[in-house]
Amino acid sequence: MLTVIGLAVAVGAVVSLVGVSTGFKDSFMKIYESRDVDLVVTRAGGNEALNSGLPEQLGDPIAKLKGVKQVVGGLVDAIDFRDQGLLGVILNGWPPNCPLFGELKVLHGKLLAPGDEHKIIIGRVLAANLGKKVGDKIELYGSEDFEVIGIYESPIVYENGGAIVLLSELQRLDNKPNEISGFTVSAVKPIDDQSLDDLAERIKELQPGLKVTKSKEFVNNVQQIKMSSAVAWITSAIALIIGAIGMLNTMIMSVFERTKEIGTLRAIGWRRSRIIQMIIGESLLLSIGGAIIGSAAGVALVKLLTKLPIASGIVSGEISTGVFVQGFLVAILVGAAGSIYPAVWGANLLPTEALRRK
Amino acid sequence: MNNHSHLLHPSHNGAPVILQVDRVSRTYADGSVTALNDVSLEIRRGEYVAIMGPSGSGKSTLLNLLGTLDRPTTGELYFEGHPLSQLRDLDAFRSRKIGFVFQSFYLLPTLTAVENVQIPMFETGATPAQRVKRAYELLEMVSMGHRATHLPAQLSVGERQRVAIARALANDPPLLLADEPTGNLDSRSGNDVLSLFDELHTQRGKTLIVITHSQEVADHAERIIWIRDGGIVHSRAEALKQREAV
Amino acid sequence: MHFLDFVLRNLLRRRVRTALTIVGVSVAIAAVVALLSITNGYELTSKSVYASHGIDMVVVKAGVADRSSSTLDEDLGKRLQELSGISKVSATLRDSVSFEGTSGPVPLNGWPLDSFNFDALNILPPGRDLEPTDKQAVLLGKTLAGNLDKKVGDEVEIEGKNFKVIGIYESGNIIEDRKAIMSLRDLQSLMDRISQVSQFEITLRKDLPDRTATIAVLRQEIENLKDEDGTKVGLAAQASDDFVKSDNQIRLAHAMAWITSAIALIVGSIGMLNTMIVSVLERTQEIGILRAIGWRKMRIMRMILVESFTLSFTGAVLGILLAFVMIQVLARFPAAQGAVHGGITMRVIVMAYLLSILVGLVGGGYPALRGANLPPTEALRYE
Asked: What is the phi/psi pair of residue B186, to 5°?
């Protein structure tokens, strides 16, 4: 049954694309949730979260505010390793005493220590993609060699595909002295919404030109996340429209083919509503079948994607159940929408007319 | 016609053999079903032959084999001396050499009469204009010229069969095969068709092979071949018995 | 009656089905055409900014994934100027800033006042170019000025500071007209990025015998520039067209466009295949008749394939029209202006037709083979 396959492809596309992009968002969100981050402080007006800059010194005054438990500031940039086909690898610059180091599990070598110039630690996935071991050198920004002193594993997928150097080193490399990309602020718990907004205001007062956003809102607004969601949805919409047309076509063909059968059913007393139920029911069965196959295919596709070096540092390979539910819902909608017209048409045939056909 | 001896002996003794069936069998389902068993016969150019037998006797199978629509399981068929098994392009051969007339007419329902007649001509490389012209000529010949632009649904059964005959003649094949051509017709239309066949036989020298139940139809033929249980019945006594049974 | 006639008539027998299949294919092709055109449009628009300025090569920091985060030392410009073959060097500092009256960040360029980039701007009267004596002055692109509703002489608040609109320019480029331009110094102090630039733009001398060779040589030289202590500066240099083409965002856009197109085409082809298979099945007896009355297998195949190609071709024609309409609608939105630059190119149209052939082949190939190889005797008996 080709319609099932067609629908399966459409659903598979939806599942994998939406899954990847929500996975994107979820992974990103996880960064902030797992670190108990409530607020993100960036420069107002800058667009990409990766580009706006704030002075490093702002960290202290923020930390001293009442209700602030922890402030972490770091610089981040995205770099390419074109020869290995890796684009957009995240390079973090953390101060030596950064609490985030505590979350890394050391697989080989060690972590960064104060004064570690020209030293870098890389995530497990990046190490595999670049084929580097402890002791090897990596050239950053086409100009300086950094020695790999450790390979780590992080609960955050981006960090596994990324690398970390000391903040001062990244500031030097990026020509951004004393600058950091932003601060993440964890508030003392428990805290209610009102107090959190209050805290955000107080932070803003410290210096003009600050933007303070709650972590969830921040993640939702990151340019790349917005774009990937948009792309995923546009593609899904297109795939589903075409799939729906195919489904409609099939149902029309099938109902037309069975006019005699339907006429017989009507002649022996089946009411119109029952005929409609039967046809829509069949269509729904087809859609669900397609949705199951498509979802399975989508999952397989995403798993396959994580095997690719370019994607393994970005895509987490897990698809949340919400995506499946969405996929099924849409498939059911498509199945229903595609069969209403043929169902009603078929049910309204006069029994004699139906029996007369072919 | 009371003397039936001529029914057993092929006439046209000097004419070349157009079709030769040499020990042909046709089995299905890996040999468990035998439709035709070790059949041999000869048909000469210009003959008008009827094939008769009860249902299930294998006469349709024989017609299909004679018409190159099917291949035998064993044995060989020769058309004008050419062994059919060695013909590379059976379809091209069939389109030039054989015309079919079916019991159910099998006209294409969405095409008009004149268009239906043109269908076989696509394979001959004629131009559309030539095709149309010839189609009209053929329809005239079967007295259907006035209904050329009608669809099959608008024609009576007799008219449809006549169009089908015109179609069968499209590429001027030497051999015409008809499967129960009058089976779905009333007696008047049936007679019209038989007259047409006579005309084609005597005036245009066509070889005709007609499968039929009906003695009336068989009477128009020069020779009758009896088929029963997948084989040809040869003895005269048996033939007479067959005739009476039918 | 022509063969084609006969084929078309077959298609018209099942009007609804034919129509739906064509719609399915046309939506798929429309998606492909629209997506490819839009991504091409972006690339073209970006390229033409550099072309209109006469820029031959662009130099940015090596290794950065997002070019807008490239930060270089202003003084490098002098070293570039010394290289042979180079006529002029300009620098640009790129940043995004908050403008009053806009919800999102606005791209802002900072150019040294003697930059050749200014030559490409067509400043509309009564405005004028930036002068060294101007303090806190800004040029607005025509689109931006329209969005902000500002005229020459008005004040506008940028990053909390007041700037005077000295002139409004029209560059003819959609991307550029959405930007604002101020002097390099002003931007550097505004964003606290003293001595920084994002990239250098290079124009080559006009009298060079082989530009391509010169560019290749310069690339090597620039990328191997070293500091006093011997470490590489870390520059990436490219011809401007290549620079645009290799931009990660552009490449990502292309990749997404192709993935989406592929999915749309696959789903559309499956729909086509479905239709053709059912259609052939329905005509089993008819195919038997055609074979009996002399049609060769080839012709049966041709008939089915021609049907399939007719459907896909019609779908392509409609799809291209649909894409055209979609792009016209898109052009109404100022935000999408950059996307519709160049419209639907001939290349994309040709691609659409090639893809429709593919769809026709996928959708019709197997049914054609099956239909042609039906044994005539069985087909005749089929009901």
From this structure: -75, 170
- Are A245 and C27 contacting, i.e. CB atoms less than 8 angstroms apart? yes
Which of C270, C322, C383 to mutate: most A Cβ within 10 Å?
A: C270
Looking at residue A213, its pLDDT comes to 87
Sort strands C161-170 and B82-83 into parallel, antiparallel or unpaired: unpaired
**Could you state, in order of their start, the residue ranges of all structural domains in chain B?**
47-68+90-245
Task: Say which of B108, B128, B170 has its CB closest to residue C2.
Answer: B128
Q: Classify each residue of A193-209 as buried b or exposed e, where b means 16 or more C-beta atoms within 10 Å of its C-beta.
A: eeebeebbeebeeeeeb
Mean local confidence (pLDDT), C254-271:
86
pLDDT digits (tens, 9 = 90+) for C9-41: 888 888 888 888 899 899 999 999 998 988 888
**What are the pLDDT digits (tens) for B6-58?**
444 445 566 788 888 889 988 888 778 888 888 888 898 999 999 988 877 88
pTM recorded for the entire structure: 0.80
Secondary structure of residue A93 in the 3-state scheme: strand
Chain C: touching chains (3 or more CB pairs < 8 Å): A, B
Burial class (CB in 10 A: 0-12, 13-18, 19+), C35: buried
Instruction: Give strand pairing partners of A180.
Output: A54
Q: What is the pLDDT of residues A84-100, one digit of tens each?
A: 878 888 899 999 888 88
User: Residue A189, exposed/middle/buried by CB under 10 A (0-12, 13-18, 19+)?
Assistant: exposed
Q: How far is the C-alpha of B68 from the C-alpha of B74, rounded, in Å? A: 14
Q: A325 phi and psi, to 5 degrees?
A: -60, -45
Domain ranges of chain A: 2-23+225-356, 46-208
Helix/strand/coil for A350 = coil
Distance CA A24, CA A21 (A): 5
Query: What is the spatial distance between Cα B210 and Cα B48, in angstroms, rounded to a whole number?
Result: 8
- Which residues are within 8 A (CB) of A94 and not within 5 positions of it... i.e. 6 or more apart? A74, A100, A101, A112, A164, A166, A167
Asked whether the beta carbons of C155 and C84 are under 8 A apart, the reply is no
Q: In the predicted model, what is the mean pLDDT of residues A111-132?
A: 90
Residue C55 near residue C80 (C-beta atoms within 8 A): no
Strand partners, C107: C96
CB pair distance less than 8 Å for C291 and B91: yes
To the nearest whole Å, the CA of A178 is away from the closest chain C CA by: 11
Helix H or strand E encompassing C201: strand C199-204
Between the CA of residue A156 and those of A147, A279, A336, C59, C279, what are the distances in Å?
Answer: 23, 48, 40, 34, 53
Would you say A323 and A15 are in contact if contact means Cβ atoms under 8 Å apart? yes
Instruction: Name, in order, each residue with C-beta under 8 angstroms of C153's C-beta and a sequence gap of 6 or more.
Output: C164, C165
Chains B and A touching, counted as 3 or more CB pairs less than 8 Å apart: no
Q: Which helix (H) or strand (E) holds C214?
A: helix C211-223
* Helix, strand, or coil (residue B57): coil
CA distances from C347 to A173, B156, B244, C37 (A): 42, 56, 78, 10
As a whole number of angstroms, the distance between CA A75 and CA A184 comes to: 12
Q: Strands A144-153 and A105-109: what pairing?
A: antiparallel
Give, as one character, the DSSP assignment of residue A82.
Answer: G
Chain C hits for A77, CB-CB cut-off 8 Å, are 64-65, 69
Q: pLDDT tens across A187-239, in order? A: 888 888 888 888 888 888 888 778 888 888 888 877 777 877 887 888 878 87
The CATH number of B47-68+90-245, from 3.40.50.300, 3.40.50.150, 3.40.50.11030, 3.40.50.720, is 3.40.50.300
CA-nearest residue to B97 within chain C is C294
